[in-house]
Amino acid sequence: MNHSMPDGSPYVPKWAEISRIEKLTESEKLFELRLSNGQPLGHKPGQFVEVSVLGIGEAPISISSPPINDNSFELAVRKVGNVTNAMHNLGVGGKLGIRGPFGTNFPIDEAKGKDILFVAGGIGLVPLRSFIKFVLENRKDYGEVTVLFGARNPSEQLFLSELEQWRGRKDISYLETVDRADENWKGNVGVITTLFPKVQVDPAKTICVVVGPPVMYRFVIMETKAKGIPDKQIFLSLERRMKCGLGKCGHCQINNIYVCQDGPVLRYSDIFALEEAL
Amino acid sequence: MEHFLLEKNRLNEFLSALRNYEVFAPVRKVGLTVFELITNPKEAMLDLKNQPQSPKRVIFPQSEILLVFDKNNAAKEPKGRVGQKPQVVFGVRPCDARGFHMLDPVFEREYPDPYYLQKRQSTLLVGFHCSEPYPNCFCTSVGGNPSSPEGLDILLTDLGEQYFLEVITSKGEQVAKEGAAVLSSPTSQQQTEKEKLSGMAPQKIRRTIDTEGIASKIEKHFDHSLWRELSGKCISCGICTYTCPTCHCFDIQDERVRGRANRLRIWDSCMFPEYTLHASGHNPRPTRTERLKNRMYHKFKQNIDLYGVPGCVGCGRCITLCPENVDLVANLKVIKNL
Q: What is the pLDDT of residues A92-130, one digit of tens each?
């Protein structure tokens, strides 16, 4: 065996150039990127990449776009740590290191012909958007599509122009809520579970995909159980402090799984008994 | 494989003869015995009982530059890696040699890790039969043996005035060839003496735990309130993980040196609260109880499921060096008896 370096090193990032930046909220920006080698990233909805800003470090970031023909991909990033703050200081033309894509993807094939219930809490919409957009682009492959989106307050809603399109679409049901309204908000007020009574599902043919903060999962699962959706038809994306993405550094281990490789997208029936997962 | 005899007073000559190798051996440094590159055989301290650190760091260093980025952001190899001489690690305990067997599958699995594997392939392990085990050694409870050649290329047994030298692998044969001038043939009496010592060695291990069934007990009682008691003394200092020959967790960090960036890998510890802390502030493993429980789960359940063996070689360092006397063997017994 020859382990020559650095070409053979799984720690070497590829370089990507920022081609567009969109401010989403006060603390989140969308970065459109293209790999400098002209190749597609080769990801599937739900996977993540290790993003690096040289001299600052690396951070695991979920990919927010489905595979796109022009080889671009999108990362929506909240500025919260060293790497993400450094990303927010970059402009168009700025370079980021990319390793990956890593991990499991949303059930794009298993959900074909089935109804899909998307449940997104806060920036959980960022990874889930890759699957929602994939389904909308391949709309005829899927049955009834329902999107539930909850944000803490109206100013924390992401992808406003896309939400506006979803509100107007006849081929999906889009329901939204905020925990706390402002004076302009006319919609539902309350946590995301308050949307469930408004939703009708056929539990036998519904795939439910949930992404949100850790506290949300437990309560959403209570609602899916009440609707009779089997645990094996529920998919979650887990967040962990992943460092290597290679199943070695240990950080994302939960009992017998490494979230960077066995996840981040996991079937609820496979992890409901997994301590510390939810 | 062949057997030789090495007179103790010719050990330095033997080490000096290994010109084609970089030799690492335990050396005395600020009151500690640590494995370091030696230039003079006299530096070697063959005090097996006094090794607070395992030789893990020779192949998986505590801090290691993975990538050096040049002005154009191109990733380069760190200097000094290519064409380096093969390494000999001298003075390895059999438990620590087995420790590398626990690390190998982690770095070999999907996405092979060239940094570890290159050094591993070019490193020979010369070990010593543990004739006087530590009070906290329990290698025989986790599949080891103080006189085991497993994982070693050469095994030495102390016969008093001489070492009985057994060549275990073909890599070891090369080393024996380089030092052939100071080796002689053992007598049948010395051979018998060596076998007698090997047979006696396991009986000198004073601590034992029957690990059969531990994995299922850990899983079954994952929610038990006893974990809180077991971790009550732990201060999350991480010494158990830093001295462990099988722990492999690491962090990846960048540093700037004269305007350029290096990417490093640095040992990390699952005992630290920051280890699992999310950017959001959420921590899935927030207290010492979850962290200690996770470490035991990883060693005695996950490792068995993934690789078929416990992730522990029974070296006893985590027990001996814990400032709060958290005792892994005692804790395993508590879980076993639940």
A: 999 999 999 999 999 999 999 999 999 999 999 999 999
Say if the Cβ atoms of A6 and B75 lie within 8 Å. Answer: yes
pLDDT tens digit sequence for B20-30: 999 999 998 88
Domains, in order of start, for chain A: 14-102 (2.40.30.10), 115-277 (3.40.50.80)
Name the token pair of B277. 């802390």
ipTM value, please give it: 0.93
Cα A111 versus chain centre, distance: 17
Pairing state between β A14-23 and A95-102:
antiparallel
Interface test with A, best of B64, B113, B292 (most A CBs within 10 A): B113
In a 10 Å sphere around its CB, with 0-12 CB exposed, 13-18 middle and 19+ buried, how is residue A185 labelled?
A: middle
Q: Give the SS3 label for residue B191.
A: helix
- The 3-class SS string of A9-54 reads CCCCCEEEEEEEEEECCCCEEEEEEEECCCCCCCCCCCCEEEEEEC
Q: Inspect the interface and report whether the beta carbons of B110 and A247 lie closer than 8 Å.
A: yes
Give the contacts of B228 (CB within 8 A, at least 6 positions apart): B289
Q: What pTM was estimated for this model as a whole?
A: 0.94
Cα gap B137→B129, rounded to integer Å: 14
HSE of B176, CA atoms in CB hemisphere, 13 A: 23
Tokens of B37: 């590159």
Q: What is the rounded CA–CA span in Å between residue A221 and residue A229?
A: 9
The one-character DSSP state at B281 is: S
Domain ranges of chain B: 3-60+78-204, 214-255+268-336
